[in-house]
Amino acid sequence: MAETARGAEIILDGVSKHYPKSIALDDVSLEVRAGEFMTFLGPSGSGKTTTLNLIAGFTELTTGSVYIDGKQMDRVPVHKRELGIVFQHYALFPHLSVFDNVAFPLSERRVPKAEQKQRVLAALETAGLKGYEDRFPKELSGGQQQRVALARALVFEPRVLLLDEPLGALDKKLREQLQLELRRVHREVGRTFVFVTHDQEEALTLSDRIAVFSAGRIEQVGTAKELYEKPASRFVAEFIGESTVVESEDGTTVTIVRPERGELVRDAAAAGPGRPAIPVTVRQAIYLGSGWKFEIVLPDGAVGVVRGERELDWIAGGTGEAVLTWDPALAPVLPA
Ligand code: ADP
Ligand code: MG
C-alpha cells in the first residue's frame, strides 16, 4: 500500500448516548491522533462499542459532536465517512470468493477492474493471505476469515480503521499471532486504528495509547506505561495489570503495590525505617523460571501478589507469615 498513507485525527467532543432506560455513554471527550493505534479497553457494557458506532455513524448522538480530520460528522452518513470496519461478527459474503469479498468495496466505488485486481492482491498480501484468492469463506479457518475481513477493510485505503473485538472469537494462540500481525499492518499502512477489547493484555500488546472505559465514561487515556505506573483511579489500577491493593486504616485511600514493587520480608524490623510494614499470609509460592510469584492475603482478607527473585528462606513449603513492604515513592495512593 502507498507509502504516503496517512491516518485521520478523530475528536469526540462531549459525546453522550442515552437510551430510554440507560445511559450508554456519558459526556465522553477524546482525541485520537492521526496514525495512532488507539485501544478502547473496559469491561462488557462500559460503552466501547457504542463509541465506535458513534464514530462510524451507525448510531445517532444524544449530545456532542464527532470530528474526523476537523470535519464535523453529525450529518455525514456511514458510507461517506470512508472508514474501514472489522467487527467480531462482521460476516463475509459466503457466496463470494476471497477475491470478490475483498474487491466488494472497490466494486461499490466503481474502481476500474485492473486497478481492483492490483489493490485486492496488495491488501491480501498485507493481511497475510497471498494465494487464497479463489477460496470461499467456508474453506477458511476463523483466523483466516478475520484476515479477509481485515483485507476488505483496508482495500479502499480508509484513513481510519475501526475494529470491534475482531480477535474475540479466536483461540489464545491464534489471537496472539494475529495481534502481532495487526501491529505490523498498522505500521505498514500508517492509518489510524481504533481497536476495542476487554482484554487488558491485548490492549497492552497492541496500542500506542489506551482509553479505559467504565460505566459509560473514560476513566483515563494514556500509554500502557502511564496507565500501569500512574493510574488515575482505583478502577484503572485494578483493571490494568496485577497489584496488591492496600487500604488505609481509615478506609479513604488505597495504595497500589505492583507485584515487582512489593517486597516480602521476615518481620517489620526487616522492612527498614520509614517503610510500610503490613503483616500478610503467604498462601502460595509459584516458581516461574524467571523468579517467584507469591500469592498473599492481607489482614482485611484481600488477596495480593508479589514477585521476588528468591524463595522466602524462613517459609517452608511456600506458605507462612511474612511482612509486605514497598518504596512509598513507587506505589500510587488513590481514593478508595
Ligand atoms: P461494550 O461494547 O463496552 O460492551 P456497549 O457500548 O455495547 O458496551 O453498551 C454500553 C451500554 O449501553 C450497555 O449497558 C448496553 O446495555 C447499553 N446499550 C447498548 N446498545 C443499546 C441499545 N440499542 N438499546 C439500549 N441500550 C443499549
Ligand atoms: Mg462491545
Automatic annotation (TrEMBL):
GO terms for molecular function: ABC-type quaternary ammonium compound transporting activity; ATP binding; ATP hydrolysis activity. One of its GO terms (cellular component) is ATP-binding cassette (ABC) transporter complex. Residues 10-240 form the ABC transporter domain. Its EC number is 7.6.2.9. PROSITE patterns: ABC_TRANSPORTER_1, ABC_TRANSPORTER_2. Keywords: ATP-binding, Nucleotide-binding, Transport. It comes from the Bacteria. InterPro entries: AAA+_ATPase (IPR003593), ABC_SmlMolc_Importer (IPR050093), ABC_transporter-like_ATP-bd (IPR003439), ABC_transporter-like_CS (IPR017871), P-loop_NTPase (IPR027417), Transp-assoc_OB_typ2 (IPR013611). It is an enzyme of class 7 (translocase). The keyword ATP-binding applies. The keyword DNA damage does not apply. PANTHER family: SPERMIDINE/PUTRESCINE IMPORT ATP-BINDING PROTEIN POTA, SPERMIDINE_PUTRESCINE IMPORT ATP-BINDING PROTEIN POTA. This is ABC-type quaternary amine transporter. It comes from Leucobacter edaphi.
